[in-house]
Amino acid sequence: MENIWYRKVLATIAAIVCVIYVSPSNAQTNNQANKCIEDFSNALIKCVTDASLTSGNFLWFVTNGTSSRSEQPADQNAFKTEICGLQQQIGACTFQSVASIINSTACVGTSAATNQQDVIRTQLNTIFGTYDSKCMHPCRNTLATELRDCYTDSGLDPKLFLSNSSNGAVVGSNEEQIGMFCGAKGALVSCMQRRVDACPEAPQILRAIDLDIPSFEKGVTVLCEHPKVYLHGLACFADSTNEVDRCQQKEAQSLVQLDLQAREGNWTESRFFEAFCQIAIDQVECDLKAWGNKNHEACVEAVIGLRRELECELVAPQCNVNTKQINELDHTCHPEKFMKKKRENFSKGSASAAALTYTAISVTTLVTAVYSAMLL
Q1: In sequence order, which residues have a C-beta less than 8 Å from that of residue 185 and are 6 or more positions away?
Q2: Are residues 14 and 58 in the same domain?
Q3: Which of 161, 124, 134 is nearest to 5 (CA)?
Q4: Which of 35, 214, 335, 348 is the most buried (most CB within 10 A)?
Q5: Three-state SS at 49
Q6: What are the E-state strand segments in 173-242?
């Protein structure tokens, strides 16, 4: 999985590249630490040479020429194009090869002092973090800002983009703001989609910022269709509860653990999303149950049902959560649980606009392969 193999880390390259200076012929084979480093170096270089690159040119690229074994290519621009085109192949090969090495006797060691597993993990992250940062498309640093600018271009408050402040709002906090947002929704989504289409790295970036454009469009459409229920519900979600916080913490911990397992096991994308989707659906159920248990007059069934529909719409599209596939009544996203009849009969009165606030929940994770939904 590309978003798991490659990630940018803050460690300096100088702290780790010394490992690949070690020549197998000079390794201390009777020393566990050196044997671990030797095995790692051999596996990495084999993946490089299997991709028809020379190890010297590769080391020049990932160490900025600081390795004593690096060799500068004759045509640097041509080499960058070549090596960046092989990024996924070399990364997949390396992580798959190292998976068995990292758990070998040589790397596990006989004590904490001789255990080299964390050293190898750090080296992998730094090497491929450098590799990735040098091959990345410029839009990786600009796409989020460009998407935010779509709000301004559509005449909307840019603060609404991925808002996670206590007084933020997905579509506004009063009838006037909601009317403006819903009226400009088509132009906003079109603008965002154009900028996504123009960025080759958009899928990875959108995962990192927890945004899927089609799901976002479906989600805000749900809110625009029921403005009074939405407005009334803002007061319910203005302040979190311990139970709600525990749900978020549980999801965050599960996602971090999932990322570690996927990286070390070199999981396929389908295997990753099978596990991820279960975490996502469990979070929807946990979150809605927690809000439903909140003792607040605004937390009525119509409000909780609307939030459930929104959260189900915002689940990653890879999870295939839709009404045609949900047949079991006890499923978290079964349409009966959206309380649509309650919405139709919802009181026309609403709470004071000045008192209405909204919380957009965004779970922060440590990996780029991680997806969590913007919630109502």
Answers
A1: 217, 220, 221, 224
A2: yes
A3: 124
A4: 35
A5: helix
A6: none
Output the DSSP codes for 163-174.
Answer: --STT--SS-SS
Residue ending a domain, among 113, 136, 159, is 136
My answer on whether 102 and 173 are in the same domain is no
Residue 351 to residue 238: CA distance in whole angstroms: 13
Per-residue pLDDT band for 325 (boundaries 50, 70, 90) equals: low
Cα 21 to Cα 27, 36, 42, 320, distances in angstroms: 11, 14, 11, 47
- Answer yes or no: do 116 and 213 share one domain: no
Do the domain assignments include residue 107? Answer: yes
Please give the tally of structural domains in the chain: 2
Please report the pLDDT score of residue 168 as a whole number. 41
- How many other CB atoms sit within 10 Å of the CB of residue 283? 25
Q: Are residues 97 and 145 in the same domain?
A: no
Place of tokens 């290519």: 73
Please name which of 58, 36, 39, 40 lies closest in space to residue 48, comparing C-alpha atoms: 58
- Copy the structure tokens of residue 202: 């958009």
Question: Cα-atom radius of gyration of the chain, to the nearest Å?
Answer: 25
Cα–Cα distance for residue pair 146/217, rounded to 1 Å: 17
Q: Is residue 360 included in any domain, yes or no? A: no
Closest to 255 measured CA to CA, from 116, 106, 371: 371
Task: Say if CB 101 and CB 107 are below 8 A apart.
Answer: yes
The total number of residues shown for the chain amounts to 376
Range(s) of the domain holding residue 122:
2-136
pTM of the model: 0.64
Would you call 145 exposed, middle or buried from its count of C-beta atoms within 10 A (0-12, 13-18, 19+)?
exposed
Rounded CA separation 260/151 (Å): 36
Dihedral angle, C-alpha 294, 297, 299, 300, nearest 10 °:
130
Same domain, 265 and 172: yes
Contact 57, 128 (CB under 8 A): no
CB atoms within 10 A of CB 217: 18
Which of 187, 193, 108, 180 has the alpha carbon at shortest distance from 147? Answer: 193
- Do both 190 and 325 map to the same domain? yes
Cα gap 345→352, rounded to integer Å? 20
pLDDT tens digit sequence for 137-178: 999 889 999 999 999 999 998 888 876 433 446 888 889 989
| pLDDT reading at 297 higher than 60 | yes
